Amino acid sequence: MNRKLIVLLIALLALSGTGQAQKATTEFDMVRSILTGDWKVDGKDDFESWNYAGQSLTGRGFKLKDGAEVVTERLEIREIEGSVYYLATVANQNDGATIRFRLTESSPDRLQFENPDHDFPKKLIYRRNGPDKLSVDVLGTGDKGFKLEFVKLKSPKKPG
């Protein structure tokens, strides 16, 4: 009888770890479905581009200046230790360190990433507002910040 109980406990422990991994995989698939593609900030020459690269979503924020692409941030979304993280390395900020934001809420049209210990932003909320529209709330203390409205590009934006 004890042997069956031990086998059952081992099986339950293995399944509980699998459940967390499956949750992260489902959340990552949601992130991928919302963000993949090339996005332009409405009314500006600012862009975000997201590509699926196996185990992660890689991205970059950039501007077009005199027809040339100027990268302002390197981005990545991937699973780390059973949770999904948004990793941002912003030019000339945080001494070059990558800042992690953990995915805290997700639905088919909304992603919320948070890092309450970071100075600004503390929260990034992506919302899909239709097949070709995306908004991002960039929020700090007291949920104060700004919003970016993106339009999905039909084909990748190439400088020049």
Task: Write structural notes for this entry.
This protein is α+β, with helices and mostly antiparallel strands and 160 residues long. It has one domain (2-152): Calycin beta-barrel core domain (Lipocalin, Beta Barrel). It is built from one helix and ten strands, in the order H-E-E-E-E-E-E-E-E-E-E. The protein has one helix at 2-35, and strands at residues 37-41, 46-53, 56-65, 68-80, 83-90, 99-107, 110-114, 123-128, 133-139, 145-152. It has a ten-stranded antiparallel β-barrel with strand order 1-2-3-4-5-6-7-8-9-10. Strand 3 (56-65) and strand 4 (68-80) form a beta hairpin. The longest helix is centred in the first third of the chain and has 34 residues, at 2-35.
List the helices and strands and how they pair.
Blueprint: H1 2-35, E1 37-41, E2 46-53, E3 56-65, E4 68-80, E5 83-90, E6 99-107, E7 110-114, E8 123-128, E9 133-139, E10 145-152
Antiparallel strand pairs: 1-2, 1-10, 2-3, 3-4, 4-5, 5-6, 6-7, 7-8, 8-9, 9-10
